[in-house]
Each structure stands twice: as structure tokens, then as C-alpha cells.
Amino acid sequence: MRTIQAKDIIEAVASMCIKANTELPDDVRAKFEQAMAEEDSPSAKEVLRQLLENADLAAETKLPLCQDTGLAVFFVEIGEDVVVEGGNLKEIINEGVRRGYGDGFLRKSSCDPFTRANTGDNTPAIIHFDIVPGDRLKISYMAKGGGAENMSRVTMLAPAQGWEGIKKYVINRVAEAGPNPCPPTIIGIGIGGTFDHAARISKKALLRRLDDTHPDPQIAAMEKELEEDINQLGIGPMGLGGKTTVLGVKMAVEPCHLASLPLAVNVQCHSQRHEEVEL
Amino acid sequence: MAEYELKTPLKDEDLAKLKAGDVVKLTGHIYTARDAAHKRLVDLLDKGEKLPFELQGAVVYYVGPSPAPPGRPIGSAGPTTSYRMDTYAPRLHGLGLKASVGKGKRNEEVRQALKDHTAVYFGATGGAGALLSKCITKAEVIAFDDLGPEAIRELTVENFPLLVINDSHGGELYVQPDRKAAGIE
After folding, report:
1. Site from A18, A32, A50, A63 to mutate, B interface, most B CB atoms within 10 angstroms
2. What three-state secondary structure class fits B57?
3. How many contiguous H segments (helices) and E segments (strands) does chain A have?
4. Is the pLDDT of residue B185 over 90?
5. What is the DSSP letter of B134?
């Protein structure tokens, strides 16, 4: 067994929250630069120019890239041979969020659904645990803003609808969302599992790098096909028109019930803010 | 596409000339309000009470800024999605609100209110909150402090960069998605 101290986890989580919200990931920056070169429209170029300037300024000043520093979402893989000392892992992660959002001057966006009263420290975090072989603890963090999350959907298609039905639903969702979720967006797609599981894997898919390729060549081809079709919508950066409506499409596919074809579309804004740490 | 420099409070003649796609650099005082603050504003109106700021000629910015770090007037301060305020906006325009600032589409009722009351809807770049905060020189909470990021703040802005999305003549800048090209029509 390997022991990991609570204080080390708290510190790692707090610094991930701050770093993800102030430093634009290099894969996203590369996509912005590529889109700048490919766009013909002056308004599309101007939006991308502002986003790059914003990223430079955020890195320099440590101001968050976006005021909506999101709900704190975590995917945690805990090795079977890991012992956490000094507290309960869920509470430890929440303490890390409390510190990170406090020390980093990040916005606290968690509130009661009915009274809308702010919980004050951006907890509770949304945490998905998974148990894996080994003696490592891997924590992935995503700042999930409300604007893009509101444009996300889960639907239960009929098996007969197949890939064509999936494509139609996803493209239509991006079209309906239009300028609202801060395009160019990244689309996480969960296919299979159950109602809840499809949503979970669609979000986890957003943790992938924009420049990666799905290991299954068939799924990789589907991602590419969807990305190209969506970009034909012409919504463009901030909905002002252009070739770049999405920066990437990331799919996760798992077995489902004979009767079902669950589909989740998780929309992520252009500032794909995420970090990961392995302890 | 013209470029204008405007000062608050805004007047009908300032707004009547604006067309979708025009760029405006705004200077003066604007007021932050988003979901919870709008609900409280209309609750005050329902009770016949005074609003915390003068609505005549006012500009409301749909934003919940991140906390101000030491030495800065405000944290990151970009626009939130506007459609959630569509329920409230026509009533406020009827009482003199001249512009709102946000991102994303407005509904038919809001677009009609802009025409009826010579008002406009401005877009600011979503996700550029650090950059936009540079144009804010002062921020002061003037109401609903308990709402935290959603409290109403009076912001002093200098050359705040805005794009006219919906003008007072029915013009709209957002493109319609090309469903046919994307193969879903």
C-alpha cells in the first residue's frame, strides 16, 4: 500500500484550479492560431485576436481567462493500493477547491437551486470517482462554466436512428445553441451506457487534448466527419460568422441496452480549462 | 460598419443611428445585473419601490465579475449569456433602459422592445473577461451585496469595446446557421 497525505492533495487541487483558470492550454492556443490563419472574415479574426490577447493578459496578471470560473468538476482515478491519510478524499478535494477559488480570486458560482443563495466557496465540487489498479492517484479538474453547460443535452434515441440520427441531433444542437455557449466550442459526445452514464462519458471526453486522435480509427473518422459538418454551419467565433464553429469533437462510445441509443452532447466553451495531476 | 464613441447616459439620438455591426467605444457609468439581480429589480418595480440606479438612459451589463485581486478595481469581467434576462428586459426598456450588454441571442419580445423604445443590444466578447476588465476603472457595489458576484455594481468604463448585435431598426448581426450546408436539412 502507498500512503498519500491529505495536505498534498489539497495543495495539488488548489493549484490546479488556479492554473487552469488563468493559463490557456497550449492545444487550445494552437487551435486559435490555426483558426486565425484559416478564417477570412474580419470579425472572426478579431474575436480570435481578442481571445489570444486575453490569454496573454490572464497569464501575465493571473486574472481568470473568464469571470465564470465554473463549477469545479473532477474525474478521480484512485489506485487500489492507495491509502489517503488525513481525511476523507471527497472532503479533501472540496477543501482544495475552497483554497484554490479563494486564494486565486476565482468566482464562486455554486448556489442553491431554489433560493439561489451562493454556497460561498464554490463547493460542493462535482466529483466522479473510479477505482483502478495500481498505487497512483490521478485527479483531473475541469472548470465548467454555466453558459456552455446550459446548451448541453441528453437524449435517448431509438436504435434504428443510428449514426445518422446521432449526427443530426448533435449538429442541430450546435445550430440551436448558436452564439450562446461562446463558440468556437468543443463538443463532448457520449454514446451508449445509460441516461446518466452517457452524460458522464461525454464530459470526460472533454478532458482529451484537442490535437489527439481517438485510438479507434472508426470513431476517429466519425469525430472528423462531425467536426467538418458542424463547421459548415458557419456560426463562427462568437456567432459572428466564420469557418470555426467548433475547435474539436471528442466522442466516447460504450455498450448500451438492446432497446436504447443514449446520446449526450456536452458543450464546452472555447477556453477549455482543465488540468490534471498524478500523485 | 461605423465606429462611434458614446458616453452614458445614452440618448435616443445616440441609439437611432446605430446599426447592427457597428462598433461602439463606451465611456461612463454602467450597471451590472444578471439573473438574481434582475429578479430583485422587477420585485422592486412590482412593489412600486425605487430602483437602486436611474434607469433613464442606462446601460445594463450582464456580468458577474470574479473577485478583485489586490490593486485592481475588478477581476475578470466578460459578458454572460443574455437570453436568461429576456423575461425582464422588455419591461426595463419600457422604463428607459437604453442598452444591455451580453452575449448570445435575444428573443422576439426583446427585439421588439428595442424597436419600440429606441434601444440596442450590444455584444462583448465572451470569454475575454481579463481583457475587458482593462476598460473598467472603478467598480462599486450599489445594491444586493448579499448576492456576491450577482450584486449590482456601478462600473466606471473607458472606451469599453462593444458590437451592436440588435439595433433599434430590427437589424441583427448574428448569422443564421446554414443547416443545409451541414447536411441536416
Report:
1. A63
2. coil
3. 8, 10
4. no
5. T
Tell me which residue range forms the domain holding A266.
147-272
Residues 6+ apart with CB under 8 A from A79: A2, A131, A132, A133, A134, A135, A136, A137
What lies within 8 Å, CB to CB, of B67 at 6+ separation is A105, A106, A107, B75, B149
Q: Are A95 and B158 in contact (CB under 8 A)?
A: no
State the DSSP H helix or E strand holding residue B99, giving kind and residue range, or none if neither.
strand B99-102
Residue from A74, A6, A119, A105 nearest A276 by CA: A74
The pLDDT tens digits for B93-108 are 999 999 999 999 999 9
Burial class (CB in 10 A: 0-12, 13-18, 19+), A45: middle
Please provide the DSSP assignment of A216-231 as one string.
SHHHHHHHHHHHHHHH
Q: Do B183 and A232 count as a contact with CB atoms less than 8 A apart?
A: yes
In a domain, A177, yes or no: yes
Pick the CATH number of B3-166 from 3.40.640.10, 3.20.130.10, 3.40.30.10, 3.40.50.1110: 3.20.130.10
A167 interface with B at CB cutoff 8 Å: yes
A163 pLDDT band (50/70/90 cuts)? very high
DSSP code for B150: G
> With an 8 Å Cβ cutoff, are B130 and A179 in contact?
no
pLDDT category of residue B1 using cuts at 50, 70 and 90: confident
